[in-house]
Amino acid sequence: MSTMAKLKHVLVIPSPAQGHVTPLLKLSHCIADYGVKVTFVNTESIHAQVMAANPGLDDESHRIKFVAIPDGLETDEERRDSTKMVDSVLRVMPGHLQELLEQVKQQSKGNEDEQINFVIADLTAGWALEVAERMGIERAGFWPASVSTLALTLHIPKLIEDGVIDNKGCALKNDLITISKDLPPYKSNDLTWSCPQDPTMQKDFFRCTSAIPGYSKHSTSVLCNSFHELEASACSVIPGALPIGPLIVSASLFHLRGSLWSEDATCLNWLDQHPAQSVIYVAFGSTTVFSQEQFYELALSLEQIGRPFLWVVRPDLTDGLVTEFHDRFLQRVRNYGKVVQWAPQEEVLAHPSVACFFTHCGWNSTLEALSNGVPLLCRPYFGDQFLDRSLICDVWRVGLVVVSDENGVTRRHEVRTKILAVLGSDEIRANCLRLKEMARKSVGKGGSSLKNLQGFIKDMIA
Ligand code: UDP
């Protein structure tokens, strides 16, 4: 990779969650490839988790320096309380970031290369853009979800003004929501701040989401982890959107993408022992929580399908104790099922023996599946996952949805039927291969995303 004329020092700051840290760290690796110095700022608790789970990440300090600032909370228990977390982050983190920037400025007096002269902030932590602007530092936003989600988010003030949603983010009518004639309408149950199982969380989520249109005014461009060909109409309604995805890191840096938990690589050897396109991969991201009942239904569906499966069961995947059930289940499926606590997901999805991906439709998981041409089975849990499901199933037609019953539980019969339908669909597989090729082109030489990224970096260091 060529080194540009005048080097800069960029500070990159994600929101404190897996789905935000990973894409921004990938972006940091891409930027560092151009010889630009990167300081990556996590909260202290995320920093500790990332360092513990990724031995060797510190050795990257010649390319990326990892720095931590407090989030103002003492325990993980407090961090699981969304109201406490949002209040605390907004109260203390802007001040800590400003102190950090001032400290670097002091320390780098007389050494221009060390001075931080650009900030890239997750728009969900858009207060960092306000800090940068106050301090006269150039900046850009970053959006870790789909451009379609960003378009809806930036239209929140208009949706409230037009009486489409109330000021708590609830849809006032059951109609389709149109924000532009150039963009297909959104379903009223695809609102991206929705948390059906937890009204308090929805309130906090909407409070954060509705701040984003204001934050976005502090930067002229928003780097998006998507590609133009995938979401052309959504890109067209956001003038500053710069799609640069799907963000990927070279295989040599795979282990440095910032997992919060240690990746269990034994599943890759296990996958090696299976024929091409035979394994059902099941993973619901970093935050999904299931009731005991839902957990049992999923486990029993995988058991009854009887095909090889790899299932990521985080220690906190359920809200009740399932150890006894889980142990008996593992015994029964030991000849065809493998369960890990956290997988190297991108390698798993790139593995030839994976046949389909049963997912919660988090945006990173969605893009990782699309980039590898893997058909999806969708069981969204909260937030933008509902809209991602609609894009996957209705727009790109690369997957099917599993529906829940009147108690919100997805039953084993439904899972079984839909998994078999996904596995048997030639149309879905053909669409997957088409999108995989489009994704590959967009980040390849002359591709739309690579051009956008190169143009951005050129402007940044000019
Ligand atoms: N992931 C992983 N191992 C797992 C499960 C997930 O590395 O066992 C990664 C996955 O590759 C993705 C991220 O965690 O990059 C999850 O982000 P996503 O946006 O899909 O979901 P979230 O966790 O934010 O709900």
UniProtKB/TrEMBL annotation:
<dbReference type="InterPro" id="IPR035595">
    <property type="entry name" value="UDP_glycos_trans_CS"/>
</dbReference>
<dbReference type="Pfam" id="PF00201">
    <property type="entry name" value="UDPGT"/>
</dbReference>
<dbReference type="Pfam" id="PF26168">
    <property type="entry name" value="Glyco_transf_N"/>
</dbReference>
<dbReference type="InterPro" id="IPR058980">
    <property type="entry name" value="Glyco_transf_N"/>
</dbReference>
<protein>
    <recommendedName>
        <fullName>Glycosyltransferase</fullName>
        <ecNumber>2.4.1.-</ecNumber>
    </recommendedName>
</protein>
<comment type="similarity">
    <text>Belongs to the UDP-glycosyltransferase family.</text>
</comment>
<dbReference type="InterPro" id="IPR002213">
    <property type="entry name" value="UDP_glucos_trans"/>
</dbReference>
<keyword id="KW-0328">Glycosyltransferase</keyword>
<feature type="domain" description="Glycosyltransferase N-terminal">
    <location>
        <begin position="10"/>
        <end position="67"/>
    </location>
</feature>
<keyword id="KW-0808">Transferase</keyword>
<dbReference type="GO" id="GO:0035251">
    <property type="term" value="F:UDP-glucosyltransferase activity"/>
</dbReference>
